[in-house]
Write a structure and sequence with these properties.
Number of strands: 2
Order of helices and strands: EE
Radius of gyration: 15 Å
Distance between the termini: 30 Å
Shape: elongated
Structural class: mainly beta
Strand order of the largest sheet: 1-2
Number of domains: 1
Helix content: under 10%
């Protein structure tokens, strides 16, 4: 089974805490049987490492498959 990897750059400018990072696949062009579990925890230095995040997830307006070809 093939997979893809991505480099992600984010600006860590929030209060010291633990935050969820959740990747949302483009469901119209991917076959991912585990799409709700593409998760990571970002832990700021000084945050309690034993506490799970309680951050509010970002909900995109859509997760359509969009190609950049021809742009």
């Amino acid at each position: 089974m093939s997979g893809q990897r991505y480099d992600v750059i984010f600006e860590a400018n929030q209060d010291v805490d633990n935050y969820w990072m959740h990747a949302l696949p483009a469901t119209q062009c991917s076959a991912n049987n585990n799409e709700n579990n593409i998760l990571a925890i970002v832990r700021y230095e000084g945050a309690n490492p034993y506490v799970e995040p309680n951050s509010t997830p970002f909900v995109p307006s859509d997760n359509l498959c969009v190609s950049s070809r021809g742009m």
